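Researcher: Next sequence.
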Amino acid sequence: MLDGGMSTVLELAGHDLSDELWSARLLLTDPGAVRAAHLAYYRAGAEVAITASYQASFAGFAHRGIGDTEAERLLRSSVALARSAASDVDGQRWVAASIGPYGAVLADGSEYRGRYGLTRRELVEFHRRRLEVLWEAGPDVLAVETVPDVDEAEAVLEVLRGSGVPAWLSYSARGDRTCAGQPLEEAFAVAAGIDEVIAVGVNCCAPGDVAGAVAAARRVTGLPVVVYPNSGERWDAARRSWTGDGAGFVPPVREWVGAGARLVGGCCRTGPEDIAALAEGLAVRS
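Model: Next structure:
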């Protein structure tokens, strides 16, 4: 069982995340709030916490006047905070270090479109150093998440290949395609045969898109499948607000697991109550 949206639980606690660093800003200004968010999810039943490093990068911190040495410290702290929260609960808990897409740094919704106009080499260099620093901080796995297109996935996989660093690869998707429009089967296929990839799947998508993605991932890779969709609401990047109805997030969990999902959680607009409901649903199923 994965956790839910980091931004959701922080906003529920009254934190303003309108900054371009989003939840990563609190690594600098209020790390205790990040730890408390992880703890809330662990107590709700999450076994895996995803770090607050999704929107954290050397480029993003530099734009705020934060130098490389401090940026490294902040990236490492994201792992330490999740690990520290795990020490406050019973049972085995794991930490997944979030590797968000390049588009997250732009803070303009580009992670829902992809096609940034960068070369593969530029994408490789963007991801390499952050990935190395986060792994050295001691997580159990890297969560390469919300990847909008195959080009960026291939760039990250180039960094991972032969490194021995375990990671899951999760695309942002609409229907049976990535957010950039490629068929999900083609997108999942790029991870086949790469030993470092322990699971593939989708996140930050509509709950209704999950079952088809699970089936596609299983057909193409045979790997365990990771899924953590949004609540069902949609992000309006122009208005910077959520629209629509978030009902119906929890009921499909049995269908997802039945189709082959092995790592299940929530993304945007899902909180500890949703994760508790998912955990209860999975317990009933078992």
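Model: DSSP finds twelve helices and eleven strands in the chain. Residues 95 and 119 are 31 Å apart (CA to CA).
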